[in-house]
């Protein structure tokens, strides 16, 4: 009798404790809702379904937990499982109340309606990439800066000039790697693409300068998607120090170049820095130093990270699918064979003949989705599919969900370049470089680099990985943990 009474008492205490814990959990989960939704009034009823997460950190804990696991898609899957497949969910991400959009119609509207949405990048991204870079400036300033920098980066004449340099670096790099034995393929690719972008922007091939800059960019890149906690030991703190070092190096380069140009008034443009220093808008206004440096920081970072990673994945996919490798190799051999006698190197004419290789690159961009998402902020209350996105709320356009949607791309987890045969993606269904007026300004240059590398790799080389089943890392970008350790094998002709 006494024992039963004691057991019953313990059960009551446990029940009370569980009840208290549930109440505390409910209260904590209601904090963000109360802070950010209470002033919306009747509009609250039209918010998308979702979960605002915990106070201060919101959904970031579950986001980081998913992306540090072997199943990063579990983060979005949990929203779909709990709140349905509507594709629009409320959340609290990167320190702000946010709406996650994962379906083409919503993505298209957010990316194209400049009167309703403006850039909404997290504090860490804005501070690290720069307050006068493309990620932070207004629509008007973005339009002006994009117009000034478009031709020197993606213009026909510029790409024709860059091709010669890119090809020479690719050919020598592949030859060198084939003689080195075991290498980290991704690390070597990132070094290669950084050399290329440094030459295009700063005309430098100094290994000491490039090594110092590349090291700082690695630290900076880890902080771009981090919470803006500027305390020693946190990633953002280390990234801010890296940006400070980068700015100092680039400021010195800008000052030195400006002195040279003043001393030599007839100096011709040799690289992107010359173009940035020389360029003027319709009112004769030049870019100031902060605009130039932030533009350089952005381009130098994006210009080697994306190209290096996507090139690695395209090589891996081709090497692991012999049937696609064979088709791409035959195309490369046909293009090389049909080049005019005496022509040295590829031209844009040959590049445009790489039709199958273009499908390989697009399929890699789709499958890998190097840029997981982009950020916007609602400039006013916006109605999308019957839901209200409140003014001031951040919108996360989740590219990966679109690219892996089986209704758009059957068997989306499979690498299949042939799916692009006669396929013209509908607006909002293929977003590797974003879309709208803020489409990535270096997209053509990136695809050119990737194509030139793959062309020469297919002609003469193979990749032999040491750990094909190596576990993955998903932040800041998807890659094998061993950076694709292996060997580049030269093929006998």
Structural write-up:
With 493 residues, this protein is of the alpha+beta class. The protein folds into two domains: 33-131 and 371-403, Uridine Diphospho-n-acetylenolpyruvylglucosamine Reductase, domain 2 (2-Layer Sandwich), CATH 3.30.43.20; 132-369 and 438-493, Cytochrome p450 (Orthogonal Bundle). The chain is 55% helix and 10% strand. It contains 17 helices and twelve strands. The protein has helices spanning 2-37, 60-67, 74-83, 104-112, 123-129, 139-154, 156-178, 185-202, 207-223, 235-263, 272-278, 289-319, 322-337, 348-352, 355-368, 399-403, 443-460, and strands at residues 88-93, 96-101, 117-119, 183-184, 373-378, 382-384, 387-389, 394-398, 461-465, 472-473, 479-480, 485-490. The strands form four sheets. Strands 1-2-8-5-3 form a five-stranded mixed β-sheet. A three-stranded antiparallel β-sheet has the order 4-12-9. The protein has a two-stranded antiparallel ribbon with strand order 6-7. Strand 10 and strand 11 (479-480) form a beta hairpin. Helix 5 runs parallel beside helix 10 (235-263), helix 7 runs antiparallel to helix 8 and helix 8 (185-202) packs antiparallel against helix 12. The chain is globular and about 85 Å long. The chain starts with a helix and ends with a strand. The mean pLDDT is 88.
């Amino acid at each position: 009798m006494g024992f039963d009474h004691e057991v019953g008492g313990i059960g009551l205490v446990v029940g009370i404790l569980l009840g208290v814990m549930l109440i505390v959990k409910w209260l904590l989960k209601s904090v963000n809702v109360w802070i950010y939704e209470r002033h919306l009034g009747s509009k609250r009823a039209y918010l998308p379904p979702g979960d605002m997460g915990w106070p201060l950190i919101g959904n970031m804990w579950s986001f980081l937990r998913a992306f540090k696991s072997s199943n990063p898609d579990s983060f979005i899957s949990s929203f779909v499982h709990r709140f349905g497949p509507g594709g629009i969910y409320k959340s609290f991400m990167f320190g702000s109340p946010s709406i996650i959009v994962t379906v083409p119609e919503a993505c298209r509207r957010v990316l194209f309606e400049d009167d309703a949405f403006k850039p909404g990048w997290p504090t860490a991204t804005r501070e690290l990439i720069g307050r006068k870079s493309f990620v932070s400036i207004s629509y008007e300033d973005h339009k002006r800066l994009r117009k000034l920098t478009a031709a020197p980066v993606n213009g026909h004449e510029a790409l024709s000039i860059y091709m010669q340099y890119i090809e020479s670096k690719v050919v020598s790099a592949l030859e060198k790697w084939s003689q080195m034995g075991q290498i980290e393929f991704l690390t070597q690719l990132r070094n290669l693409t950084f050399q290329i972008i440094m030459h295009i922007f700063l005309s430098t091939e100094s290994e000491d300068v490039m090594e110092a800059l590349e090291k700082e960019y690695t630290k900076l890149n880890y902080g771009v998607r981090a919470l803006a906690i500027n305390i020693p030991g946190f990633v953002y703190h280390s990234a801010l120090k890296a940006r400070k070092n980068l700015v100092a190096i680039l400021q010195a380069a800008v000052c030195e170049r400006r002195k040279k140009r003043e001393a030599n008034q007839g100096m011709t443009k040799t690289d992107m820095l010359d173009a940035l220093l020389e360029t003027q808008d319709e009112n004769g206004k030049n870019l100031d130093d902060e605009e130039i440096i932030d533009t350089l920081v952005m381009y130098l970072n994006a210009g080697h990270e994306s190209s290096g990673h996507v090139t690695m994945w395209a090589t891996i996919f081709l090497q692991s699918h012999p049937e696609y490798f064979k088709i791409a190799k035959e195309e490369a051999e046909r293009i090389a064979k049909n080049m005019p006698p005496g022509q040295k190197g590829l031209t844009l004419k040959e590049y445009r003949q790489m039709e199958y290789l273009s499908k390989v690159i697009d399929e890699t961009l789709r499958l890998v989705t190097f840029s997981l998402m982009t950020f916007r902020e609602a400039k006013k209350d916006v109605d999308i599919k019957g839901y209200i996105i409140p003014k001031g709320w951040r919108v996360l356009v989740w590219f990966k969900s679109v690219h892996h949607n089986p209704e758009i791309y059957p068997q989306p987890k499979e690498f299949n370049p042939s799916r692009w045969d006669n396929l013209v993606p509908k607006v909002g269904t293929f977003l590797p470089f974003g879309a709208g007026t803020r489409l990535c300004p270096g997209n053509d240059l990136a695809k050119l680099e990737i194509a030139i590398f793959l062309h020469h790799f297919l002609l003469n080389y193979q990749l032999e990985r040491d750990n094909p089943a190596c576990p993955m890392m998903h932040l800041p970008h998807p890659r094998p943990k061993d950076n694709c350790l292996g060997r580049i094998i030269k093929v006998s002709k």
